[in-house]
Amino acid sequence: MIQDLEYLIKLQEIDLRIHEQEMAQEKFPSKVIELQKEIDDIGLKLERTIKKLEGIENETGKIDEQINKNHALLEKSQSRLSSIKTNREYDAVHAEIEAQKNMINTAVIRKKNLQHESEMLNTTKNETSEEYDKIINTNGPQIKDLKAKIELIDSNISEIMKEREDIVPKIGKSVYRTYELIRKRRKNRRAISLISNSKNCTICFKILEPQLYNEIKRGTKLILCQNCGSILIWDEETAKKQHA
Description:
The chain is mainly alpha-helical. It folds into 2 domains: 18-169, Helix Hairpins; 191-243, no CATH class. The protein is built from 5 helices and 3 strands. A hairpin with a 6-residue loop joins β2 (223-224) and β3 (231-234). It is rod-shaped and about 130 Å long.
């Protein structure tokens, strides 16, 4: 049993190293997503601004075409004035002229408004473009570094798992099964409480009864803390240091 308990201590150390790597593995991808979202958000803002500018450019082009068309119709209507013979026809042509002038004026006002909007959007585009470049230059290297760390963590876990695979077969099945049941129930994955001269459980800090404490020192059987359920194992190395 003493040998099983010694292997359990080594296994706990291995599992805690794996858990540490897994915690980092969970943290880094979320940070990558956060950094990438900053890039995507500012990129989307820039894209929308550019599309609005393109829309304004297209609409301005159509307005110019309409103004040119109205000017042509206006000149045509004005040229007819010299050949008019009746008052009714004169009134009709003047109505056409006024209508063309009104449409031209309306189009010119709309064009000016679009030009003003375009100027503001160009300012926004330039500012957003600068911000986008800044975020790319800041977040890009961080994302690259984090992805490299994620790959390294995968490699580290694989290496540590080899250590685990080597030691698990050396532990009795019932002892290992108990250890795994406790370990998997806990967020920190700590199943073992190492006991030394302090005479209390290092997980829940419950003071151990003298008889139980002596049994733990002998290491002849698997003992669980009556309070928290941790495996209680004598820590000879720490006990020697405390005694020295």
